[in-house]
Design goal:
This protein has 2 domains: about 140 residues, 3-Layer(aba) Sandwich (Rossmann fold); about 170 residues, no CATH class. The protein has 10 helices and 17 strands. It is an alpha/beta fold and about 325 residues long. Strand 10 and strand 11 form a beta hairpin. The strands form 4 sheets. It has a 7-stranded mixed beta sheet, with helices on both faces.
Length: about 325
Amino acid sequence: MNKYKLTACGGTFDLFHAGHKAFLREVLSHSEKVLLGITSDLYVKLFKDGKNIESFEFRKKIVEDFLSLIDAKNRVQISPIDNFYGPLLTNNVNVQAIAVTSETADMAKEINQKRKQNNLPELKVILLSLNLAKDGNLISATRIRNGEINRDGRLYLNPQLKNKILVLPESLRSELQHPLAEILDKIPEKIDGAKTIAIGDITVQKFNQKNVKQFLSIIDFFVQRKPQFHELSELGFENQNIEKVSNPHGTITPQLFDAIRKAFQTTDKKIIFVNGEEDLAVLPILLIAPLGYFVFYGQPNQGLVRIEVTEINKERAYRLVDSFDIN
């Protein structure tokens, strides 16, 4: 028999992940029934700025699907909440306990203070554990959206490969010779330069001619492995931050990884100049960039490849990089 008949808990449940699953399983282990408040679209707009967060109906459905999967849907009542009190300051629900984590424990104290003022009995507080990612930090929608981890908490940048030179194996050459995504015949008319990465001298030159103002440009002064440019001005640059890295043909070096990672630490426009070859730069970019960015690079004799930084494409890049030889 579970300890409580009805326990309340709440959350946003954006980008439903392993931490959410563990939270729901644990609260269910403490109570026969659960009153689950999911933040409404209004709450998200008022308190979370509404940026990129999934709609209430979508988040609710994902939670319901999970509850059905673990045969617990009939034990959980879901309702939208416009503030973190939800219905807990009224006597409309007969709740005995509230489940929180260390991050939301102060909210439980405040709710109990308000209940006392309303002549309502104090709720027992259940402190649930937090699920951690592989690096020992929290799994969160923010970290997933920032491109650091996947929904199971695995880092996209494998720490075991840190400071290692990755060498393209023969087994992957054929796959990487093909475009990683759709091919365009021209630069799109509407493009958000702040979330655009251009790889390759000709691609960068064309983007500069179109005044895209891309966030990051990666160049090497070569075109199809033949020297073609000598000055940044030939590519359309004036004064802009530039970082030079070494990255020999067929490799991904720690210097390239570090330069790309550093590029995303600020919103300033940047140039990475590669001494060697930038053909494989799309892979570390996909691993490091936040969701929603777009990478453009030229496919010889075919056109312009556009690949969005999505969870699927991050997983693909992880698989490919994980198959590289280590030097």
